[in-house]
Amino acid sequence: MCQATKYLVKTKTLNDLGEAGIIQLIQGKGPARLPSHLKKGIGDDCAVLQTTGDRVLLVTTDTLIEGIHFTVELLPPEALGWKALAVSISDIASMGGTPHTAFLSVGMKPETEVSFIETFMAGFQALAGRTDIVLAGGDTVESPSSAVITVTLLGDCLPEHVVYRSGAVVGDDVWVTGPLGNAAAGLFLLLNKKASELSGYETIVLAHQKPTPRLNTGKALGKSGLAHAMIDISDGIAKDLGHICEQSGIGALLKTASIPMSEEIQRLGSEVEKSPLEWALHGGEDYELLFTASPAHEEKIMSLTAEVSGSPATKIGTIIPEDGIWLETDKGKRPLQPGGYVHF
C-alpha cells in the first residue's frame, strides 16, 4: 500500500460498531464456555452467579455521565442520587430478584462544591432506605471535566424464580406494568418549558427525575412463575422488546390502541404538537417492566399485579414467529423501528 493510499483508509470507530456491536466484540473476547459458577453472563439485565447457598447472586452495573445522561440543570443532585440507584434496582427487579448491597463510585472535578455530594447522597440514601439496600463501598476519583457516577448493585433470588430475557415463546401475551412515555415527556418539558409552565405536569417531570422501580412487582412475577421473559424499559419499549425477541428467537406484534399512556402526556402532546405514542414507544427511562406470559394466565397476572402495585399490568401485544417487532394500527400492520436511546 502506498503512503498516500494508507491515509485514505478509514479507521473503524465505536460509533461505526454501535452499542450492540461493541457488546458483541467484548463478549467475543470472553470465555467460550461459562465457568460453573456463572449461570448467566453478558446479555441480560444482570449477571447470575451460583453461590454455596440456595439462592443465586444477581449483579448489575450502571454508569451515568454528566453531559451524556444528565445535566445538573435538569437533574439536581438529590434527584441524581436517587436515579443513579433506581436504574440498577430496576435491573434487579426485571429478573425477579431482591437487591441488598450497593457499591458507589464517583468521579468529580476538584472544584465541585461539597454540598453537591451531600445532596446527592441524601437522594441515594433515601431510595436505599426504602428498599433495604446497604451501601458497602466503592471508589472516589478526580474527573477533569464532568461528573461520572457508577453503581454496582448486588441482589439475590431463588434460581427457579429468576426471569431471563430468553424465555418468550410464540403465542405469549406481551405485558407492561404501567404507562409509557412519561419520562420522555418530562424531559421534553424540562428542556423546553420555564419552571412556571410546569404546573399540572409534576407527575411526568418526577417520572424523569426520580423514577420508581417496579421492585415488588418484579419479585412477585418471578416468584409466581407466570412471566416467561422480562426486561425493564430503560431505552424505550421498541428497543427493549427487541432484546427479548433477539434472546428468545421470536418476534412481536404490538397493538397501538393498547399502549398505556397517561392523560398528562396526551394533553402535553396536543399542546406542543408532539406524538405521545412516539414518547411511549421510543422515549425510554420509564423503568416499567415489560414481560411475556401465557394467555391462559391473563386473569392471574392482572390480579397479581393489581394486588402488588395497586393497578393491573396492561396487555399490549403478542409474541409471533415472524422476526422483528410489528405495530398494529388503524391503518394496518407496519414494522416498528428500534428507535429508543442510542448509546453510540
User: Number of helical segments?
Assistant: 11
β-strand percent reads 15-25%
The helicity comes to 25-40%
Beta strands, count: 13
CATH class of the largest domain: Alpha Beta
Reading side by side through the largest sheet, how are the strands ordered? 8-10-7-11-9-12-13
Return the string of H and E elements.
HHEEEHEHEEEHHHEHEHHEHEEE
The total domain count is 2
CATH H level of the largest domain: which superfamily? PurM-like C-terminal domain
Radius of gyration: 21 Å
Which descriptors would you attach to this protein?
single chain, 344 residues, alpha+beta, 60s Ribosomal Protein L30, Chain: A, Phosphoribosyl-aminoimidazole Synthetase, Chain A, domain 2, seven-stranded mixed β-sheet, six-stranded mixed β-sheet, 11 helices
